UniProtKB/TrEMBL annotation:
Residues 24-276 form the Glycosyl hydrolase family 92 N-terminal domain. SUPFAM superfamilies: Six-hairpin glycosidases (SSF48208). This is Alpha-1-2-mannosidase family protein. Keywords: Signal.
Length: 788
């Protein structure tokens, strides 16, 4: 896709009017090579995410920029996920007369794979997607919160607008039945209404879910067929004006309706598709309320774009002297951070509550690090709702989730990282409507009560209590079998989760609890093997057996030589996931996890042998290829030079990471976007600071814009970041002031965003600048008196 040529310099800063930043968003970034980005039409946190589905092995996000054919345009998606393909329910497909033997509906190819049709280049922008199909029909879609509005423009000579709605299909082909299809005239519009729903299976979780739809076409159909597969072949039944079919389909056989409509003056068919997680009646109510006029495609599209501009508009940047590529990357990345989770407040079928309800936390292991801390400064209202929703999930299911999608419990990836998602908002004074006492209760339950840690809380609580670490093989399954291992990475995460609990305990005045959990956060050290060596460095996080001996995996730690590079890009990433046979580290190596002590980096520096060794060890980590930016544990290490007073090296490292691994092409992401996590890393890096998620610390690199403002939508406070003299060579901070006072620390705290203020840097090319290098300039650590 090509963006229109726009003049980017001199975009108004701090103006009250909404700037059309949607023009800079390229939704196709990350739609191939495993990015799994959803490029279709949605609102910020929209329930409906409508767009085409590609017949591609890589179609987790629906449309894939790999040239594969389109099987349909469906109503729901997830964004950037790993796991199986999510959602993709209730696809539509337009046909022309020629495809259906001169309008014989029984001759249209309905089989999902065989019907897939070629296409030309699509175009997309926030709230809009358009794709020209090889049959001459152009499919466009826009959306409101719960409703997709589709516009199909057929070739001029079309005698009937032929159309498929498959009611029993999603991307994972997971239909379980429990559905029906009711066709009836819509008395209000004089058109055709089809309602129904069905049961499907989540892509990375347990159980099943039901979802419902309400379809409206603007006129009565000229002809209609219900189709259903029976014994391997399709059977057709004529549609009467009012008909109900039961779709207790077995074995993933398709069922749905085919209809032919009369072309109006233009051969255009607008169809409205309301979606609800509660009932088809509710789907119809949403449809009528949000899109009363089915013909108003352009107005709904404009409103969607306006909504995006409003949500994106808490941030403004001055792009003077900044390349078009940087502007496009920044806004596209920020845009993607607001696609998920979905706000389905008021449409929760699971329990009755007046609290907000959000779904598609896919997964918190990914999003707590960068996405939710971003909301804390750019969208604190949404973040407060997310916190309330998580606490309400705890109230009603007994647990905070690590992962949830499609109303179901998802698989826990590591620790109980909702603890740090909550602590992050707590220390950043996100309070609106939040019952923090119950939030704290939920966190303590994670730390003290063992549930089914496949989907909630933590595992190995008694073993850790007894030993101070999670031993290898502490599971009901045989050791090293399947998802129940990850002993080393889980311990590191549990230790940091405990630190989050301590911060909240401290804030709530629970001094004993705070002392207890601060202490538990030191458990990482219990699996630090000072004698493990690799590539010239000694001391690594290594899994441990229950008897205290170090664990060597017989598959790679040959001759009892521990391989800290296993699960890194240079030595095997193949079995480090939530898979049977997955090892003791999850989605990153010991080389990478050995940096993960955000609560006490000062102690880690000492443990590794002091600042010089720490710094050269970081150098080797990057140069030897052990760093993996494609998974979320790879974010934090790029900022760690700040902990040894070398912010200049952080600037170079973040620059190199962005240059090497990110670009604006369809394959421009280093991994699954994971609900905007890869994008959020880009946003933070461009701001010039990075959140140490779960605590009140932002590590400074340098801004990529001469001026950035971030408006706090709750209290109106404006934080302004100015980089005087910024250029491609003047990218190192020489000096700084905060609200006019000299500022030498290489980190900032959240007060800039709650109180407002101005952080101003003088930039230069001098890499020997002493700014941020002193002992007193280092970020907080527990062992040097921080936090407590
Ligand atoms: C893609 O669709 C076109 C028709 O539009 C068809 O001719 C072609 O065989 C399809 N390709 C694949 C790989 O299915
Ligand atoms: C369709 O009709 C329009 C307006 O009459 C005309 O401009 C266009 O060329 C026609 N397209 C085709 C493919 O016939
Ligand atoms: C359609 O209506 C006719 C006439 O009332 C009836 O015989 C037939 O069963 C109906 N078909 C369906 C599918 O309901
Ligand atoms: C979430 O949805 C509810 C109900 O529609 C709405 O009141 C609220 O403003 C939404 N939140 C955000 C952040 O848009
Ligand atoms: C935790 O408390 C124990 C017992 O008092 C003590 O030995 C240990 O050093 C403490 N750990 C940390 C990290 O403070
Ligand atoms: C490292 O090796 C030395 C010498 O064998 C031993 O005394 C020490 O306990 C070992 N340290 C660890 C953490 O295993
Ligand atoms: C864009 O980034 C991807 C992912 O890092 C990389 O594979 C690709 O080579 C890059 N393309 C360009 C043109 O730099």
């Amino acid at each position: 896709m090509k963006l229109p040529g726009v003049v980017l310099s001199g975009i108004a800063v701090a103006s009250a009017a909404t700037v059309d930043v949607a023009q800079f968003v390229n939704p196709f970034i990350g739609t191939s090579d495993g990015g799994h980005v959803f490029a279709g039409a949605t609102l910020p946190w929209g329930s409906v995410k409508a767009g085409p589905d590609s017949l591609s092995g890589d179609n987790q996000g629906g449309y894939v920029s790999d040239g594969t054919n389109i099987t349909g345009i469906s109503q729901l998606h997830d964004d950037g996920t790993g796991g199986g393909a999510s959602l993709g329910n209730f696809p539509f497909l337009p046909y022309t007369a020629a495809q259906c033997a001169n309008n014989d509906l029984t001759k249209c190819t309905v089989d999902h794979d065989r019907r897939a049709i070629a296409h030309d280049d699509p175009t997309a922008s926030p709230g809009y997607f358009s794709i020209p199909l090889a049959n001459g029909v152009t499919a466009e879609v826009t959306a409101t919160q719960h409703v997709a509005l589709h516009r199909f423009t057929y070739p001029n000579d079309t005698s009937q607008l032929l159309f498929l709605l498959e009611a029993t299909r999603d991307l994972g082909n997971s239909y379980q039945g429990d559905g029906q299809i009711t066709v009836a005239p819509n008395a209000k519009t004089g058109g055709t209404r089809v309602t129904g729903g069905g049961r499907f299976i989540p892509s990375f979780g347990e159980g099943s879910y039901e979802v419902f739809y309400c379809f409206d076409a603007p006129s009565a159909f000229l002809q209609g067929k219900y189709f259903k597969t029976a014994s391997g072949s399709l059977a057709y039944t004529d549609l009467n004006a009012t008909t109900t079919f039961n779709t207790q389909i077995q074995n993933n056989n398709p069922a749905g309706v085919l209809m032919g409509f009369a072309p109006g003056s233009a051969a255009t068919l607008n169809v409205r598709m309301g979606i609800s997680w509660t009932s088809s009646d509710k789907a119809c109510a949403y449809a009528e309320e949000e899109i009363p006029d089915i013909s108003a495609f352009d107005a709904i599209h404009s409103a969607a774009r306006e909504k995006w501009n409003e949500v994106l508009g808490t941030v403004e940047v001055d792009a003077t002297g900044v390349s078009d590529d940087t502007v496009e990357m920044f806004w596209s990345s920020l845009y993607r951070t607001y696609i998920s989770p979905t706000n389905i407040t008021g449409d929760n079928p699971l329990w009755t509550s007046t609290e907000p309800f959000y779904d598609s936390f896919y997964c918190i292991w990914d999003s707590y690090r960068v996405v939710h801390p971003l909301y804390a400064i750019t969208a604190p209202k949404a973040q407060a709702e997310v916190i309330r929703a998580l606490i309400d999930i705890y109230r009603n299911t007994g647990w905070l989730p690590d992962c949830r999608m499609s109303l179901d419990k998802g698989f826990t990836q590591g620790g109980s990282n909702a603890d740090n998602l909550l602590s992050d908002s707590y220390v950043k004074s996100i309070t609106e409507g939040i019952d923090w006492d119950t939030g704290y209760e939920a966190m303590v339950k994670d730390a003290t009560v063992e549930g089914d840690f496949t989907v909630e809380g933590r595992g190995s609580i008694p073993a850790r209590e007894a030993l101070g670490f999670v031993p290898v093989g502490d599971t009901n399954n045989p050791p090293n079998e399947g998802p129940n291992t990850r002993s080393a990475s889980r311990l590191l995460e549990y230790a940091y989760n405990d630190f989050g609990i301590a911060l909240v305990a401290k804030g709530l005045g629970k001094a004993d609890d705070a002392a207890h959990y601060f202490n538990k956060s030191g458990d990482w050290f219990n699996i630090w093997n000072a004698n493990a060596t690799n590539t010239g460095f000694s001391g690594f996080i290594q899994p441990r057996n229950a008897d205290g001996s170090w664990y060597f995996d017989p598959r790679y730690d040959l001759n009892n030589v521990f391989r800290p590079d296993h699960c890194s890009p240079v030595f095997g990433h193949f079995d480090c996931f939530l898979n049977t046979g997955g090892g003791e580290f999850y989605e990153a190596s010991s080389w990478e996890y050995s940096w993960f002590v955000p609560q006490d980096m000062a102690r880690l520096v000492t443990t590794m042998g002091g600042p010089d060794t720490f710094s050269s060890r970081l150098d080797t980590f990057f140069s030897a290829g052990f760093h993996d930016i494609g998974d979320e544990p790879g974010f934090f290490p790029t900022y760690l030079y700040n902990y040894v007073g070398q912010p200049v090296k952080t600037v170079d490292r973040v620059d190199a990471t962005l240059t090497q691994y990110y670009n604006n092409s369809v394959g421009g992401l280093p991994g699954n976007d994971d609900s905007g996590a890869m994008g959020a890393y880009v946003v933070w890096s461009h701001f010039g600071f990075f959140p140490v998620a779960g605590q009140d610390t932002y590590l400074l690199n340098r801004p990529y814009f001469p001026k950035i403002t971030i408006r706090n939508e709750v209290n109106g406070a404006v934080a302004t970041i100015i980089a005087q003299g910024l250029s491609s060579t003047n990218k190192y901070i020489q000096s700084a002031t905060l609200n006019g006072e000299p500022y030498t620390k290489n980190w900032i705290s959240h007060s800039l965003f709650t109180n407002g203020g101005t952080l101003e840097f003088v930039m230069g090319s001098n890499k020997d600048s002493t700014w941020g290098t002193g002992e007193a300039d280092l970020p907080m650590s527990l062992s040097t008196g921080g936090f407590q």
